[in-house]
Amino acid sequence: MTGVKICGLRRKEDIEYVNRYMPQFVGFVFAESKRRVTKEWAKELRDGLLPSIRAVGVFVNEDMEKVVDIVKYTRLDCVQLHGDETPEYIEQLMESIKDNEGKKIEIWKGIRVKNEDSLRRMSEYSVNAFILDTYVEGSYGGSGSVFDWHLAAFASEYGKIILAGGLNPQNVKEAVERVKPFAVDVSSGVETDGFKDEAKIKEFIRKVRQC
């Protein structure tokens, strides 16, 4: 079954919504964004999350020591790197961060998809999964735009695929059926006036689980 990640949580109401509808993953944004949260607030929100829901931290070109500090402080389960991080950076980070039981936590690499050449970059990285998002000039993600899913369908040869970019309750079922990703990632597609919408979260998850 395709998993669901609801990204950009920043209110206690958001935690209540995801605890009610149980996506596999939620995301806290630590990069420059209107959804950015401090590590202190992220920890408070994360503490209210049901144990079965995995917490992902989203970072863009962040200092490695800061990433490690936030991971440990907030007890993140996964790190999502959505910038220009090199394979060497990721390899070093993978050795530096472990969970409370001493196990390495997962690292996901964001790939901004413009064309087939964008996908070839995936072969350079050794990570647990890839987030495929839409390429937008001057942006590192979160644009809410859809890219060509035909490209995404071929990306699975490089590893686990998490499909992002412009997903919403109206198109996610088609996206899952065409791409067959490991998971789908949504933020603005389940918002109203810039805030998470309970009804949209419920419908998005319902549509994914119909597949």
CATH topology: TIM Barrel
CATH architecture classification name: Alpha-Beta Barrel
SSE succession: EHEHEHEHEHEHEHEEEH
**In CATH, what is the class?**
Alpha Beta
Label the overall shape: globular
Report the major sheet: 8 strands, parallel, barrel
Q: Average pLDDT value? A: 91
Considering the protein shown, what is the CATH homologous superfamily? Aldolase class I
- Based on secondary structure, the structural category is alpha/beta
The percent range for helix content is 25-40%
pLDDT < 50 runs, ≥5 residues: none
Kindly describe this structure.
The protein is of the alpha/beta class. Helix 1 (12-21) runs parallel beside helix 8. 33% of the residues lie in helices and 21% in strands. Strand 1 (3-7), helix 1 and strand 2 (25-29) form a beta-alpha-beta unit. The chain has a single domain (3-209), classed as TIM Barrel (Alpha-Beta Barrel). The protein is built from eight helices and ten strands. The strands form two sheets. An eight-stranded parallel beta barrel has the order 1-2-3-4-5-6-7-8. Strands 9-10 form a two-stranded antiparallel ribbon.
Write the layout of secondary structure elements.
Layout: E1 3-7, H1 12-21, E2 25-29, H2 39-47, E3 54-59, H3 64-74, E4 78-81, H4 87-96, E5 106-113, H5 116-120, E6 129-134, H6 149-153, E7 161-163, H7 172-179, E8 183-186, E9 191-192, E10 195-196, H8 198-209
Parallel strand pairs: 1-2, 1-8, 2-3, 3-4, 4-5, 5-6, 6-7, 7-8
Antiparallel strand pairs: 9-10
Helix pairs in contact: 1-8
